[in-house]
Each structure stands twice: as structure tokens, then as C-alpha cells.
Design brief:
Blueprint: E1 7-11, H1 18-27, E2 31-36, E3 46-47, H2 58-61, E4 66-69, H3 80-103, E5 108-112, H4 138-154, E6 161-166, E7 169-171, H5 177-187, E8 191-192, E9 203-205, H6 206-218, E10 224-228, H7 237-247, E11 253-254, H8 259-268, H9 272-279, H10 287-291, H11 300-307
Parallel strand pairs: 1-2, 1-4, 2-3, 4-5, 5-6, 6-10, 7-9, 8-11
């Protein structure tokens, strides 16, 4: 520890989510040690060449009370090399870090997984719950699910409390991926085929995720626990885009296109996941996270306003 304050090691600290989580921890009295792959820019930074089964974590974990593991391999093609990268980083690299944390006497280990361990849609089913059987989709979802299984085996009797968080799409300032595409389309008033979409989807602001991570670090709990975390409001893709446009002080250009036609064209183009993200439902049962007493600090509308800022903090 440093000056009596607790120290937390954060992997992926320079990424989109990390740039929201780190300031929240610092503001609340934590000493943050960032695991970085580039030359350290702060006295608390520690350089780690890679996240793999061979990484030496001893120096990074020395004097640390908790680990927040955000780093992951994402958006790789489905070739043999990518499969190996997902396994080495998201699965075996995560479990090696967890075992190293146990050896170092770490009290808390928080792993940010993904809702994709349940699949891309719960169409025709009740909202996903923490105790549902895992049905992961894609290389990313499968690698995260495998890491969860390994962490559940490591936790018992280790003396380290493991928390798994399964978020849906995370949005916020600096977000990439699907949210960045939607934001660009709305700001540039590009036509979107969402006029009659009536699905329901969960979203999570980066600020709310950071808040729950902080809350979890301050609360007692069992040796292994899983939480589905999302914004309280779960809305259709159409409404999400409309409210994003409102936050940007513009209006969206929405038109109708037969979903079946779009589904066929995206599937043929190898983008079936894009169809699911836009048109399928992805609802989460938030009763467990609500029962902890945690309250999300910002609403969906406030989160979207903050997501339009040019800087994260």
C-alpha cells in the first residue's frame, strides 16, 4: 500500500474502458498501478510486454490489494492465428494473472467479461440471468466464457475474492466499435434502416461500469460471484439512436427496410453479428446487481451526453 491507501493494479488501463475506470478509482482514494505495454508515463505504471501464460506479474503485483482486469483481445478475424491469440490472452493469460494474484496474496480480483457468454440475443427467451447456462457466441465470447470457468475453479480456498462482470455494449467518450459507428452515423445524419425496430436491448455507460467496479471493491462478498451490469433502462435500437441524436442536438434519419432482406445481405457479407446487434433483443435481468444496494450514478440520457464529449475525463 502507499500512505495507508489501497493499491489496485489495472490491466487495459489505457483502453476505452480503462480511461473511465482509472480516474474513478483515483478520485475515491485508490492508488492505481497501470499495467502498460508502452514505456511508463507515471511513477505508478509498470511495463508488461504482453498478456500471456508466460507473463511475469511478480513486480506488478507487489504491494497490491486488488486487480481490475480489463485487458482483452478483441475484433480479430476467425483464422487459426486469431484463435491462438484469443486463447493466449483472454483465457490462459487471464488465468495465469489470477494464479499470480493468488500467489501474491491479492484480496480482490475483478474480471470484466462480456454478455456474449450468453449469446447475441435472447429472442423468445426470458431476460438473461447470472445463473443461465453459458451459450457463448464467436471467438471472443468463447474465450471469455472459458476464462470464467477457469476463474470459478481458482477462487475456492484461494483467499482471493473473484468478481465477474458481464456487460452488454459499453458506450461512452472514446468508445470504438458499434457505438462509434452509430455515433458517426447520427452526427452525420446518415440514413439508418431502424424506423420500425421494436426490440429491447441493454446498454451500459462506461461511467456506470466504473461506478460498479468501485462499489464492488468496497463491499464484502463471496469468494466467486457473477453480475450482469447494465443501465436501468433497456430500450429498442431505434430509441437508443433517437436519444443519441437528441443528446447531439440533431434528429436521426430513419427509414424502413424489411429486416429479412437486411438479415440475408448481412449474413451473406459475413456480418450476421451486425444484424443481431441492430435488430435482435438482448434483455438482462438486473435484479441481482440491484439487490447489492448499488445505484447507477447516471441515466441513459446523461450517459449519451457524456459519450459525445471529445475527451473522456
Amino acid at each position: 500500500m502507499s500512505d495507508g491507501r489501497r493499491t489496485v493494479l489495472v490491466t487495459g488501463a489505457s483502453g476505452f474502458v480503462g480511461r473511465h475506470v482509472v480516474p474513478e478509482l483515483v478520485r475515491n482514494g485508490w492508488v492505481v498501478r497501470r499495467a502498460v505495454r508502452t514505456p511508463p508515463q507515471d511513477a505508478n505504471d509498470v511495463m508488461i510486454d504482453s498478456l500471456s501464460p508466460a507473463t511475469d506479474w511478480r513486480a506488478a503485483l507487489d504491494g497490491v490489494d486488488a486487480v481490475v482486469h480489463l485487458a482483452a483481445r478483441v475484433h480479430q478475424q476467425s483464422d487459426e492465428q486469431s484463435i491462438e491469440l484469443y486463447r493466449n490472452v483472454n483465457n490462459e493469460g487471464t488465468l495465469h494473472l489470477a494464479r499470480s494474484a493468488v500467489a501474491a496474496g491479492i484480496r480482490d480480483f475483478i474480471f470484466v467479461s462480456t454478455i456474449l457468454v450468453h449469446g447475441r440475443s435472447n429472442y423468445g427467451r426470458p431476460p438473461f440471468r447470472e445463473d443461465d447456462v453459458l451459450t457463448p457466441r464467436g471467438l471472443y465470447g468463447n474465450s471469455k466464457a472459458a476464462a470464467e470457468v477457469g476463474l470459478k475453479d481458482i477462487a475456492p480456498g484461494s483467499g482471493m475474492r473473484v468478481t465477474v462482470i458481464r456487460p452488454p455494449l459499453i458506450y461512452g467518450a472514446g468508445a470504438k466499435g458499434n457505438f462509434a459507428l452509430l455515433k458517426r452515423a447520427v452526427i452525420n445524419r446518415m440514413p439508418l434502416p431502424l424506423a420500425y425496430v421494436k426490440n429491447r436491448r441493454a446498454f451500459l455507460s462506461a461511467e456506470n461500469l466504473a461506478s460498479f467496479i468501485l462499489y464492488r471493491l468496497s463491499q464484502p462478498g463471496s469468494e466467486y460471484d457473477v453480475f450482469l451490469v447494465a443501465d436501468r433502462e433497456q430500450v429498442s435500437t431505434r430509441e437508443f439512436v433517437e436519444r443519441l441524436a437528441r443528446a447531439a442536438e440533431t434528429s436521426p434519419r430513419l427509414f424502413w427496410l424489411p429486416p429479412s432482406l437486411l438479415k440475408v445481405s448481412l449474413t451473406i457479407g459475413g456480418r450476421r453479428e451486425a444484424y443481431d446487434s441492430l435488430f435482435a433483443s438482448l434483455e438482462l435481468d438486473l435484479s441481482k446487481v440491484t439487490s447489492t444496494g448499488w445505484q447507477q450514478p447516471i441515466s441513459l440520457d446523461e450517459g449519451l451526453k457524456r459519450a459525445l464529449r471529445r475527451t473522456d475525463v
